[in-house]
Amino acid sequence: MILRLIRHSETEYNKERRFQGCTDIPLSEHGKSILRAEKNIPEKIYVSGLKRTVQTAEIIFPGAEIIQIPELNEICLGILEGKTHEELKDDPEYVSWLERGGSGRVPGGEDKDDFADRICRGFEKVLAEERSSETVTAVVHGGTIMAALGRYDSRRKNEYMEYGIANGDGYEIEVTGEGADMKWRILKRISCRKDSGLTHLYYGPGRGKTSIAMGTALRAIQDGYRVLIFQMCKAEGSLETAFLGRHGAEVYYGFKEPVFPKKMSPEQKKEAFAQQTEILRSIVTTLKTCEGDGKKKLLILDEACAAVRHEIIDEDILWDAVLRKPYDAEIIMTGRHPAEWMMEAADYCTELVSVAHPLEDGISARTGIDR
Q: Looking at 8, 141, 200, 310, which residue is catalytic?
């Protein structure tokens, strides 16, 4: 079964960075305006019942039957609701709760573990009801999504805050098992926002994967995007990245010296793994810090497929960069042999097949054309 989880759109509390919890706040006008209607409308959509989930579902899935599941309501935040961090920063109960890392019972509110138990009961109820369905869609809350994935995610468990997601964004999830044996696997990032970036994958033995990526970068720069290019498994020297760098792109190279990954020694691989992983970690941090700053972003992960195939990148961090990307970031991955999750995650997925290539006639890569 495929479960599509979408977080409700923006409210005034979201905009003002106020704790919202189970307070029944409607969508703001901006929150309504950023949503787009889906082309394919399911017969029914599950929501928590709070106004913001109902309104979001009505805009994205017009005409669908809306079924309310109160167990999927957001966590009750007690004395925090309606307040900002600035308004609470001197409150001893709030400070104590922060020092516990947000675990345990919220002052005057709900215990975090009790909340997660409630959310799990809600999803088990929905999925049992829809046992024979291929796809189930729910419009819920950020905390609801975080609590469920913290319990059910088969890739990473108990990382509650790591599952935070923007208003109007969500995940497509493969669900296996039932009850206590239920497992969720995130397949792709989905979005119902008009301003959301998408994920591309250009792969295969044919020429043109990097060329497509760099051509898109040129177009994005002209349109005012912040463009970041990470050439994994490559050293400085390509003409296209030199040109794009002079015109505003932020360019990173995975290798200090040119070398084919399959010819690397174990020591070289270890060094490359550490260097490329550190660069990627820094890029991910930068993008997440700048989410929602009003500037669109394009991240090119050139030869990401090769980096994974030759184990010279931390695959979990790469997965995080793609599946937990900021809503306003467009991502392009290239390479010959993509991992299965890369194929699943892509909104654009194009295989380039070589029909003829000058290399077959002994003509090597030519400056200005191939490199």
A: 8
Q: Which one is the CATH code of 199-361: 3.20.20.70, 3.40.50.11290, 3.40.50.300, 3.90.1150.10?
A: 3.40.50.300
How many whole angstroms separate alpha carbon 71 and alpha carbon 61?
Answer: 22
Domain 2-191 has CATH 3.40.50.1240: yes
pLDDT at residue 157, rounded to an integer: 58
Per the residue annotation, which of 74, 110, 172, 240 is the catalytic one?
74
Catalytic status, residue 30:
no
Contact (Cβ atoms closer than 8 angstroms) between residue 217 and residue 229? yes
CA distance 316 to 299: 17
Count Cβ neighbours within 10 Å for each residue of 295-318 and write b for 16 or more, e otherwise. Answer: ebbbbbbbbbbbbbbbebbbeeeb
Q: Is the pLDDT of residue 371 over 80?
A: no
In percent, how much of the chain has pLDDT > 70? 99
Residue 159 designated active-site:
no
- For all residues of the chain together, what is the average pLDDT? 93
Choose among 224, 152, 106: nearest CA to 3: 152
